[in-house]
Amino acid sequence: MVAGKYVFRYFFHITISFVVVTTTFSSVLVTDSGGLTSSASAVVEIEAERDDPPKAHINECGSKEHSGSLTIRLPRTEVSLCGNGSLDDKGIVSYNWFRVDKLSEKLSVDLAGFILTLRNIQANERFGPYEFQLDVTDTKGQKDSARISIFVNKAENLPPG
């Protein structure tokens, strides 16, 4: 640039919306003391904030394994399943548990948010496992599901000690 008087005119228009992706056009116009002008412009795109879907995980409360199956042995008759290992970048707003097996056996089920407690569990070796599904929903309404199969074996018949 040559020494002298310059006039800068900057035209800028921006619209910010948290719902809609926005395209913004910006330009600058430079005029020198001799009346010569030059301009430049740029297009700026404002994208919606990234929000990944959640990932549902079920494990036995107190364990960090997410295996999809759990084997227990009588005389144990109660188990608690946890869904708090489920992940989301913005937060999970709901945990919904469903029994999805076809067994007619009644179980006492206690739903409390991310914990599912099962009581009065009976051996199910002949009929197949108890099966439960956890559906998690994030702040944007995106969902994911996980399932777990619970195998309950009869108590071992040990000789007197």
UniProtKB/TrEMBL annotation:
This is Cadherin domain-containing protein. The keyword Glycosyltransferase does not apply. GO terms for cellular component: cytoplasmic vesicle; membrane. The chain crosses the membrane at residues 7-30. It holds the Pfam family K319L-like_PKD. It comes from the Eukaryota. Gene3D superfamilies: Immunoglobulins. One of its GO terms (biological process) is neuron migration. Keywords: Membrane, Transmembrane, Transmembrane helix.
